[in-house]
Amino acid sequence: MCLGIPGEVVEILADRPDLAKVDVSGVRRAINIGLLVEEDVRPGDWVLIHVGFALSKIDESEARAALEFLEDIGKAYQDEMAALRDSHID
């Protein structure tokens, strides 16, 4: 099962404005925000992430509810977090 997972934007990378550093339950990774060029993504915003790409901008209450749901479903969430921890964008 593949999930979209909420992450909070921590910073937009100055030398790569198509990349942002996000925090997902304490794991920080660079993700591609190029699909959201029209959304004006900024630090503090929440995005829905799948395979290293931000798919949509979401509000914080939606992000918190999604994280709570994902934590409740167990293994699929753990697998997604493991994939995020192992990911790397150059």
TrEMBL record:
One Pfam match: HupF_HypC
Q: Write down the superkingdom of origin.
A: Bacteria
Q: Which family does it belong to?
A: Belongs to the HupF/HypC family.
Q: Which NCBIfam families match?
A: hypC_hupF
Protein name per its UniProtKB record: HypC/HybG/HupF family hydrogenase formation chaperone
UniProt organism field: Allokutzneria oryzae
